[in-house]
Amino acid sequence: MLRYALKRLISLGLSLVAASLVIFLSLEIVPGDPAAAMLGINAEPETLKALRIELGLDKPPLQRYLSWTSGMLTGDFGISYTYRAPVSQIILDRIWISLPLALLALLLSTLIAVPAGIWAATKRGSIADIAIVGTTQLGVAIPNFWFAVILVLIFAINLGWFSAGGFPGWAGGPLPALKALTLPAIALALPQAAILTRVMRSALLDTLGEDFMRTARAKGLSQRQAIWRHGFRNALIPVLTIIGLQFSFLLAGAIIIENVFFLPGLGRLIFQAIAQRDLIVVESVIMLLVFAVIVITFLVDLAYAWVDPRLRSRA
Amino acid sequence: MRGLLVGGALAIVFLAAALLSLIWTPYDVEALDIAAKMQPPGGAHWFGTDHFGRDILSMIMVGARVSIAVALVAVGIGIGLGVPLGLAAATRKGSAFDEIIMRSNDLIFAFPSLLIAVMITAVFGPSALNAIIAIGIFNIPVFARLTRGAALSLWQREFILAARVAGKGPARISVEHILPNIANLLIVQGTIQFSLGILAEAGLSYIGLGVQPPTPSWGRMLADSQTLASLAPHLVLFPGFAIILTVLGLNLMGDGLRDLLDPRIRRARS
CA-CA distance, B138 to B136, in Å (whole number)? Predict the structure, then answer.
């Protein structure tokens, strides 16, 4: 297990280096001068030159890359061109919206999908199963931003139960903040719940056909006991993998939903930074999200290998 | 089989609407008619009009064309680049080439298509072409992985061994024997990626990173009418239904094709 973990850890490091290179090089080829974009067309050449030096744009690309990556390792993401504040501080302020939103959506999706998937699998072919499978087909097809607009229309505008957008902050207590995140989280969670329900259902159906389930029944366990003691645990392996992968998707997917609900999270930050050509912010937020995806994939791989020893020997 | 028929019918309706929009739409989608703005669905305008008085049915027809074109080209990029890479990687399993292809795939997978789109937009600005590239790039590893996995299992089969004994090289075997045998898999995956492409295009256009005005797109229509939804719900309902029904149709078609083309599933059912 240790050898497998080490091998995956090296691969994780290489992936992070490669990802940082891709991000840096992609954004390095941006046409135009960020300093000129910030100061406008009437900027004096001296002012422009001073700003270029201040932003480090006069240095060679390799030096800029190395100082960007080494800075990130120590938590120093640089200074934002437009906010005139440390990027790490700006990200830290915004992550307290994006992270709870993704976690809340993941929790909702899991709470809906796992029972629904188990129910559908154990009642295979029944009306309940057909209804659940049909609903998941529909759920996968519904774009989360459209669903978000419909939720606002019903629960914010017509019923007035929630606000249509904005975020009150955590300073006023967790309840108002969680309330502001509820509709966005539901919108994000629905398509994910549909996918997860299908995975849960098919994983449990696969498990139900296994020999150990027949053995469990032969030992005298009822169908329900056999499912809970043996089937559910085994079916959980692919489900946990998908849950892990969904978390990174939810973090990235929040880019759209945050815009629907005017939530000042990482998603909106990245849009504002693009509009203002604040490349250091764009680079840093993208790197952070990609870092999350790579690390979560690594953790899922490790968890998977821990549960299923065959994977370790194959690696 | 029923799913395949229903899904196929839905997909054909939208494909027909898209094709028809090339030669005819009930109204000109760029013509503004403020006097007829925000009319509810009715006789003159079946799906009503938007806040500029444009006919929503006409916009949905043109939007179908845009969505289908973007998703189709993006799937084409995925198949065109991913399949040859996957086939080549399978012929040299375990080699440095295989390792580079697979690790590059992992790297692309670390960038959700939305992030790729954000990066491309930051560099080149928003456009339909950039949306296609972003979705297309994300499709490459999907097809490369699928092709490599399926090809690897075929390389162990006796008919491939016979072809090798007959003196055929890896490239010729890949094209003449492997490719026809994995075509079914590629068709099914292509249908699924097509539907995901439609969703992705709508999402990108919704946040302004995709098709630019005045060309109508389903995502853009939703974004434009969002603030007016409480006054005229039809403005958000019709583009939403168009996306949902097209994606649902393609997904049902994909599932149906898989059932039809995968002999193991067919056998299990009979």
Answer: 5
